[in-house]
Structures are given as structure tokens and as C-alpha cells.
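Re-run with default settings, no changes from the original entry. Doing this only to confirm the output is reproducible before filing.
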Amino acid sequence: MSTTITNDNLSNIIKELMPSDYNSIILDTTIPVKEYKYYFISAFTQHVEFRSRHLDISLGDEMYQRYTTILDECGDKEFATIEKSFVEEMKAAPKWSSEGLLSSARKRMSELINGGRNVDHNKITLNEDEGFLSKEQPTYIVIKESFCSPCSNCNGRGTVEHEDKQGIPHQESCPVCNGYGHTGRLSFFTPTIHEKNCAFVRCVEGEIEGMDFVVNGDTLNIKSTEYSVTNGPKKRMLTRYNGKEEDNYDEALKPYIETIRDKTSENNAVEEIAYTVIPCYRFAYRSILTNELHNGIIIDPENNAALILNVDGESRIMSSVKDSIKKISRFFGNISKSEGFKDKEDLWHTTRLLIAVAVADGTVNDEEKRNLTVAIRGIEQFTSEQQDSLVRLLGEKDASFLNDDDFVFHSRENAEETAIRMQELSQADGFVHITEQKIIERLKFKY
């Protein structure tokens, strides 16, 4: 986008978008205009689930021969297609008591917990329909888990000798193989194709309080004003099946791939994604009638321009420090759940650095300390003793408690994300205190 909004061209844009309100506001040029880049993302995915079944069955001579031939033809493969009609015949055959039933039950439980068995897609071929996976898929036999053999109890005869009360031997049907002479196990699965759609909005850096996004499929609305945008056609960005390993993600989308998979599935076979970048600019103005300070938002001035005044929905008379604490509280909650902050040490350093920014200029009052305490107590990754040590830092007069280790991160991405959040928090009141900026620059120098 070529348009850059500054205090110099802000007046003309507001006058054009909302001329009736233009004369009733005074722009606060002491607070710089800040850009927030939102991404409206919608995705369609296909995920393959492999849930296997085990049939322990008694086999007559004819069925035994057919099954033996099938297993011989499979050779040393891991999986092979099998006629569904044969599977149905096996399902109808009498069951026999297998010593491996407990083991089989455990495997089924494991698959239930883990969402199916793990199958290398290079070893099977799934049905396609116009570039997508079909709902109807072939059935596969799991070779290493399937077998057939003469019954170990009757040695394939189908009968066993039994003495009656008088000690006279009699031949009777084998209770293990039900008199069939052979036993077998068929382990098989039919891939199930799950399709999911998701749509969401994410901001590259922080967020704007009061922005009320409503997502409806591929359409995004902002409730507080007449703003609507619809994503264009989705682009194939991932194909992972039938031996294909192709991904073509736009660079801008990479930070949001995990979010897409959280909302669909972790191991998708197909991902088609569309996205729209929505630049939003927050500015400060004062109402001539009430002399109250408010925030306004200009949305996408170059394309589908819209303007929101009084986005806060309430007066803002120099309450910026309290708002800064609210942002910190939300951010603590986000990073404690984020996949990108799994490393506990990185999370620890992030939290200490954010506290340092909060106390750096000595303006944190008792109410704000209480709010921050609640936020720190909500980080479940830390023990109560660790939380106590962090809470005590809120009583510091400045950020001198920081040490060199606080600026060392295992992940460069975590360090960069922390620096961005520190910058955002330091700018919440419209200006950056020199002590806050020094902390931020010290972290940036490290990576």
C-alpha cells in the first residue's frame, strides 16, 4: 500500500470520509498516528484419518486358501489394497478367541487417543477427484498385523478328542477355531477424509481496542461501522498425499499457519488459503463539545476506506497508563498459551522484560499492580514460587533488576516477538520513555 497516514494528511482523509463530524473534533498531533496491519484469513483443508480394525476369525478351507493367496501376493509391503467385498465376508465369519485381544484393544485405544494410526502417505495411493481427495477411498490391509494359520489347538483338523465321564474318547468340534481348522487375523483401514473451513482475523503487531470484527465464512465485517471485505479465491498452498510434498505458502502467511492448523487439523493433506491485508490507522482526537480525548480508526484508506470515531466507546482523559496495563495483562495470557513460547526460559525472560517496561518510568500505581499480579498468577507454566518472585518485581522503582540473562533467548523468533510487544506497550500512552527505549534496544542488539 502506497498511502502513509501522518498528522499532515490525516485531516484531509477524515474530512473526505466523515465531513459531518470533521468540524467537531480537534486532532491531537502530540500522539503519532500508528499503523496496525490486520490479516483476514480464510482456509479450506482436507485431513486424512486412518482408524484400523482387527478381525480375529475362524477360516474354512476355501476362505483360508483365498486369504493365504492374498497375503502371499502382498509380499513385503506394509499396506496393500483389499477388496471391500472380501472384508465383508471376513466380518461375517465366526470369531475366535485370540490371545492378542488385549494387545489389539490397546492399539485401538491408542488410535482413538491419537486420532488414528500414523500412515506414511508415500506408501498408499488415495483416490482423487479434480485435485482434491475423494470421499470414497480404498480399503487397505495392514500386512504385518495380519495372518492366517492352522489352528494351534487342533492342528488344523477342526476337531479335538474329549473323554466322557466313562473315559471313552469322543471327537468334538474344536472350541478355539469353531471346527473350521484355521484361524486368522485381518487388520485393515479405510481412510476417512475430513474437510474443514476456518476464517479469522489476526494483527501483525498487537491489536486495536474496540475493533469489533465479525467473521462470516469468507466475509469480514466490522460491526461498529459499515465496513465489509470478502476474500478472493483460495490458493493451494499445501499438498501432502500420494507421495506429494508440495508447499507454496506466501511469506506473509507463515506466522499464521499454526493457527490455521489449530482450527482445522495438525496434519492436513490439503490446505487452500485466501487472505486480505487490512491496514488500520489509529489516531487521537479531542471532542470540541466535551474536551474528552478519544481514539479514531481509519481502515484501508486506499481501497475500501472507512472511519470509526470514538472506537473506545468511552472517554479517555489521560488514562493511558491503565490501558497499557490492560494490554500487558492480555499479552501475558496470550504468550502463556502460544505454541511459539513453549520454551519456559524464553517465557520467563519475556515476562521479566515486559514487567521492566511497565515499571521503567515509575508510573505503576497500586491498582495497576493488582491487575498485573492477576495476569502473572495466570501463567500456569510457572510455579507459585516463580510467580511470587515476578510479582515482587512490581514493587521495583525502575528496571535495574534486569540482568544479561534476561536478554538471552533460545529462539530468535521469541526474542523478536518480545521486542515487538515491548515496543507496543511502551507506546501505549503516545510516547516512549527513554528508559523503556533503552531496554528495547538492548534486546534488539542481542539478536
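The first strand starts at residue 25 and ends at 27. The chain is about 30% helix and 25% strand.
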